[in-house]
Amino acid sequence: MKIKQLATFIVSGLALTLIILFPALNKYWLSEGVEQKQVRSFKVSCHLEESCRLTLPEGSVVLDIEPGYLPVMKPLDISLTLYNVEAESVSMQFRGRDMSMNLAPFQLFSSEENNSENIYAGTGYISYCTISQGMVWLAKLEIESEQSLITVTFELKG
Fold this sequence. Notes:
The chain has 158 residues and is α+β, with helices and mostly antiparallel strands. 19% of the residues lie in helices and 45% in strands. The chain folds into two domains: 1-34; 38-157, Sandwich (Immunoglobulin-like). A nine-stranded mixed β-sheet has the order 1-9-8-5-6-7-4-3-2, with no helix packed on it. A hairpin with a 3-residue loop joins strand 6 (106-113) and strand 7. 15% of the residues are buried.
């Protein structure tokens, strides 16, 4: 009887220990060998008549939007040039700065590649704001590669 009680006590103790340690061990096993992406975020204020620029330690990001203003519900030609910045996918989303107006994100597609220069292009739209004709728009850009995610929010001034 004592051996049976001792065995039950040992098995119960081991089970309790595993239950307590399982979350930590599981987290360790799942993260082992998996590299985490480096996430960096930036904010840049720019005038639409000029290119919007962000200088990074490894290179730069240049955004051009044509025409040089933001017409409502008209196509906007978006061009993004990445200098020495790797990207597997690039997406953009317009949203209101002072009002919660988000538009669906859209992809920018690679159009040219040189040694250190990658050009992405796409078409976006600004929706109509019934409250304010002077709406300040933000262009949120996401540049994703295998190693990193770079988020740049451009505050667009007309």
